[in-house]
Amino acid sequence: MTDLSGKTALVTGSVQGIGLAIAKELAGAGARIAVHGIADEATAQAATEALQEAGAPEARFFAGDLSQPEEIDALMSAVADWGGADIVVNNAGIQKTAPLAEMPRETWDAILAVNLSAAFHIMQAALPVMAARGFGRVINIASVHGLVASKDKAPYVAAKFGLVGLSRVAALEYADQGSRDTGGVTVNCICPGWTETAIIEPQVAARAAQMGGDREAGIADLLSEKQPSKRLSDPSEIGALALWLCAPVAHNVTGTAIPVDGGWTAQ
């Protein structure tokens, strides 16, 4: 079992969905968790309590709008004052679908800011500290759409392809930092396919409406187009992979983009 005692993990967008699931896995391995999200006080408190129940020796909520670089600076400064992040999971993301010709410019700007630029700013602050310690893990939650495209998702696909490329550059720049004994510094992407989270609900609802309001039929129809397994992933499965990437044994796994997509990108 991976032991993250004494480590601190910052997981963006960790009050729900994949982010919370990843944070729970890291908490269960003994990591302190810097919880992040756009959340009211009750939601933030519920997330921190859930993570402490999962095993985190400490969990603290940090606010910050990731579309605003100055708020990212404040977030990273606050986490540094708390001891700094040994593990960073860039999970926060937004999506809106529309044809390219109809995509509002402000939507493009917002999706690129949160899904790509925020990861750059966070990595720029975190990686030098990790290198100095000889241990660090950056796990960027990209998407199957960082590997293949789909219609009506121009900014999302552009951001996720960019995140995969950014991660590979960072992986190369930090590959020789640390050692097998210290654990090294690695940067990887996880690329989920259809996963049961709130971000896909608008697409599920639209497909269910085409099926006379039958949600299960809508999900099945959606999966049949892309995901050969015809099964949704559970967020906890993404969390389990993230935890493994944090293990010392993964010191030479860097620069990867690992799909969890039921065979989607194998086609």
TrEMBL record:
Residue spans crossing the bilayer: none
Q: Which PROSITE patterns match?
A: ADH_SHORT (PS00061)
Signal peptide span: none
Gene3D superfamilies with a match to the protein in the record: NAD(P)-binding Rossmann-like Domain (3.40.50.720)
What are its GO biological-process terms? monocarboxylic acid metabolic process
Q: Which Pfam families match?
A: adh_short_C2
Write down what this protein is called. Answer: 3-hydroxybutyrate dehydrogenase
- Native organism is Phaeobacter gallaeciensis
Taxonomic lineage of the native organism: Bacteria, Pseudomonadati, Pseudomonadota, Alphaproteobacteria, Rhodobacterales
